[in-house]
Design a protein that fits this description.
By secondary structure, the chain is an alpha+beta fold. 37% of the residues lie in helices and 31% in strands. A four-stranded antiparallel beta sheet has the order 2-3-1-4, with helices on one face.
Length: 101
């Protein structure tokens, strides 16, 4: 069963187009992660936050990615990575046009 992973953390930037230009390689590498279906990148320059919403094929893949990504971010100087794994209510999500197969 698919699982949704929500991640956020304190982030000083870059944001917007500069972020998009600098993190292309990271974005492309995320496509190679086992079980990853898609990611929506999230950012808040106002609140100094970065993160993402991910859809994984299963909970094991989501947990493995969260552990790896948390370690990567901590190596980059991020003190706290918040991550939550959620079940998805497919019938209600379909009503609201969620991008789920």
């Amino acid at each position: 069963m698919s699982k949704l992973l929500q991640v956020d953390f304190a982030f000083e930037g870059p944001f917007g187009q500069e972020m998009a230009e600098q993190l292309v390689g990271l974005a492309e590498s995320i496509n190679q992660e086992p079980g990853m279906i898609w990611k929506i990148w999230t950012e808040s320059e106002k609140n100094k936050l970065g993160g993402g919403i991910y859809l994984f094929e299963d909970e094991a893949s989501a947990r493995a990615y969260l552990a790896m990504h948390s370690a990567r971010l901590k190596a980059m100087g991020v003190d706290e990575v918040r991550g939550q794994i959620f079940d998805i209510n497919l019938p209600l999500s379909a009503i609201n046009k969620a991008p789920l197969a």
